[in-house]
Amino acid sequence: MPAPNRNAPFHFGVATSSYQIEGAVHQDGRGPSIWDRFCQEPGRIIDGSDGSVACDHYHRYPEDVALMRELGVSAYRFSVAWPRLFPEGRGKLNRAGLAFYDRLIDALLEAQITPFATLYHWDLPLALQERGGWLRRETALAFADYAAAVAGALGDRLRWYSTLNEPWVSAFVGHLTGEHAPGTQNLAAAVSAAHHLLLGHALAKQAVKAQGDHQVGIVLNLSTVYPGTERPEDQAAAQRVDAYHNGWFLDPLLRGSYPKIFGETPIPIQDGDLEEIQKPLDFLGVNYYRKTVVTASESGLLRARYLPGVGEVTQMNWEVSPEGLYDLLLRLGQETGGKIPLYITENGAAYHDELVGGRVDDPGRVHFLQVHLDAVQRARRDGAWVGGYFAWSLMDNFEWAYGYSRRFGIVYVDYATQKRVPKSSYAWYQRYIAEQRRLEAR
Ligand code: IFM
Q: Is 28 left (phi over 0), alpha (psi -120 to 50) or beta?
């Protein structure tokens, strides 16, 4: 596959992930994941729900692919569920689980939609967690074996791979704040998990590339961090928070070192790890939702206080801040020397959507998408190399610790009937894509 260049057609797409939409957790030999277990623990999920049925995409994928075809997207970002392929995390490949992705990819290609697969969007096989999960180096090795199996089985049609989705969330929300599976609360554990995730990324990238001429990248959740005032102490606080939210993964990937923000907390680096982790990416996926504004504080791990969003906020209380995306894209262009294409692999918003008379009107989301797409186009005009934009999400789904209480979709899902109802943002995005295609063709 030729390496993408700046003139390659821009992808407009939509994104989802396995545990958030598939359901069918007991079907065709899928093993349990850390999220199946986490959801069973009282108090972890605010509405007490889980992903066992979710959007039933496992059975309804033809309808979902038809929605994408109708929307006019040229790419779909989904994740492969590791426990479907390896119910115990490693060992014998479960062909029945693999067959689902075989069918999905065929349906996408038939609809002229390019599949972009993420290999890990947080659903670690429970069996691996029971042996220590991401705190163990062996999990990174198992991840590489799984990645090789995916590329070996699907690589004749699947060319685009993201190793990890938002490893910052897996490491810090899963192991420091404990709001996500596995629910640990320990800084040393988070730092260890982060390193093993990055090692897993590096080994999986190698393994996928050994299987064919594939494009392999990683997806990070990044946020532009601004100081609340010009005071030097607030600027220093912003730098610390930036090192935590962005630098903790960008620095080892782009520079081969970790930021020095956690004092003596040990990082389980072995000889050669950082060299592997720093090997060039084929693309960098950027998940962007909001900017971050901080001031200095006397307390807390980073001695910073996060300021609440001002102005327009989404249902998550995240401030609508497209300027943060513009600044981020230009910054990443500089940090990568303009040599790596950036893909906005997620961008979107939750709003209080209601189905009224068979319709869902979501002007807030339309506005959100519009201003962020404008920011992307402006950044491109100003020199950022961006290869695509994926709206999060194709449809409402299981929003992790928020259960089904937050709707991010451009398609409404009536969970009682599994009926899909395209929202007005879907119609808006459809018109936007068609218009961009017209402009490109001129
Ligand atoms: O739903 C999540 C997704 O799984 C990862 N990125 C952020 C989204 C919205 O919170």
A: left
For the four alpha carbons of 193, 195, 199 and 204, in that order, the dihedral sign comes to: positive
Helix (H) or strand (E) segment spanning residue 15: strand 11-15
Q: According to the model, what pLDDT value does residue 309 have?
A: 87
For residues 164 and 161, give the distance between their C-alpha atoms in angstroms, rounded to a whole number.
Answer: 9
Show me where the domains of the chain are located.
Answer: 11-223+285-290+316-441
Dihedral in degrees, nearest 10, Cα atoms 245, 292, 397, 102: -40
What are the tokens at 201? 């990324």
352-400 pLDDT per residue, tens: 999 999 999 999 999 999 999 999 999 999 999 999 999 999 999 999 9
In three-state secondary structure terms, 186 is coil
| N-terminal to C-terminal alpha carbon distance within the chain | 27
Q: Quick one: which atom of ligand 1 is closest to the CA of 408? A: 9
CATH number of 11-223+285-290+316-441: 3.20.20.80
Q: How far apart (Å, rounded) are the C-alpha atoms in residues 124 and 134?
A: 9
Task: Write down the residue that tokens 């979902």 correspond to.
Answer: 64
Please give the sequence-ordered ranges of beta strands (E in DSSP) within 302-441, or none if there are none. Answer: 304-306, 342-346, 386-392, 411-414, 419-422
Pocket of ligand 1 (CB under 6 A): 17, 20, 166, 287, 346, 392, 399, 408
- Label residue 2 by pLDDT band (50, 70, 90): low
Out of 22, 166, 319, 399, the active site residue is: 166
As a whole number, mean pLDDT of residues 293-300 equals 97
Quickly list H helices, 27-136.
34-40, 57-71, 82-85, 95-110, 126-129
The answer, as to whether pTM is greater than 0.85, is yes
Determine how many CB atoms are found less than 10 A away from the CB of residue 111.
Answer: 16
CB contact at 8 A, 161 and 117: yes
Using CA positions, which residue lies closest to atom 9 of ligand 1? 399
Check if 166 is active-site.
yes
Residue 1 has pLDDT above 70, yes or no: no
Q: Whose CA is nearest to atom 4 of ligand 1?
A: 17
pLDDT, mean of residues 414-437: 98
**Pair 376, 11: CB distance under 8 Å:** no
Ligand 1 atom showing the smallest separation from residue 399 Cα: 1
